[in-house]
Amino acid sequence: MSSGAMKAIERMNAPTWRTFTLWLLVLIGNVIHIAQGRTPLPWLAGAGLAAFVACYVTAVVTSLDERRRETRIPFVALAGLMMITYALTIGYGNDWMLCFPLLSMAIGVVMRVKGPWLGGALGATGLSIWAITTFQDHPQNTMAIAWGTALSGAISATLLNFHETVTQLKATREELAHAAVERERLRFSRDLHDLLGHTMSVIVVKAEAVRRLAPRNLDAALGQAADIEAVGRQALTEIREAVTGYREGSLTTELDSARSCLDASGITADIRQSGPPLPPQTAALLGWVVREGVTNVIRHSGAERCTIEVRGEPGRVHLEITDDGRGVVSAEGTSGTGGTGLKGLTERLATAGGSLATGPHSKRGFRLVAELPVDDEEEGRAA
Length: 383
What we know:
The protein is of the alpha+beta class and 383 residues long. The protein has helices at residues 3-11, 17-21, 28-35, 42-63, 73-92, 99-110, 115-135, 142-213, 218-247, 251-264, 280-301, 342-351, 376-382; strands spanning 268-274, 305-313, 316-323, 355-360, 366-373. The chain has a five-stranded mixed sheet. Strand 1, helix 11 (280-301) and strand 2 form a beta-alpha-beta unit.
């Protein structure tokens, strides 16, 4: 299935049993003939029509119900519908041939996931139309009825299968996005454990030594206490560096992380970067923008493609994030990354002399543009 077809089906409302039962109105002419007494044995025709409608509705409704679609009810109703269709068309002739497109539609709904059986059932129905019209000397109607019958069954099955496939793909994409977040959490916890595990073990051992030495050798105990202080200070430094690395990661790191998260969420990432190296503070601020913008794309946009462009210009750097999704992202939303949403980013960039603009992108999608000034001397030192 192409991405355009998937998006078109996704925007449409899912078909329900009402969608298919409305097609029973094509038999209104037969109802009028029965009411006017123009049909032979009208009581028998009326009973046959009522049985046809009951079997049709039962087959469609139960097949679209998740709890009953795998039971025998839809297939029993479909078998009854077939028998009634043949009885009415053979007994009453050409006026009742419109039952066949409705029968085909019910076949498509009930047997939509049984490819070979569906094709065989629709083929057998088409042959039946040819045989009945030929036997009744109405060959001129064969092509029209057969064409309508084939289309109704194939379209109903295809439409339902498309909607079910799109629903499954959306669920899979959400699961992948959650999995990417969980992997990042696991990585952080693993790194934090590796960072603190050894340090805390050393502190515990030396604290025990202080407790043992203090009663009999105060100088040795003070030496151990000094070691604990040194190890603790070193641990604080390492923790600050680690947290700074996560909270204020470089722009390159955030772009790599964005590509990974977008790919895991089923969104095609197009990342471009040009211009000279950026000062650390500027790169850190743009890293925040990338993190927040990509998080909103994954969580809210429903996009298939996301483009991130970083363009360095004399005295200024330009960052643009665009997607082809629904185009609705709240400026008050938060990403869960330090509690900073787009509003917070706007304030931070304004403090640094920059700006953040958001809005629709072309006819659809969302566009985020950030600009920051770059000091020439700092840029030279970064290079």
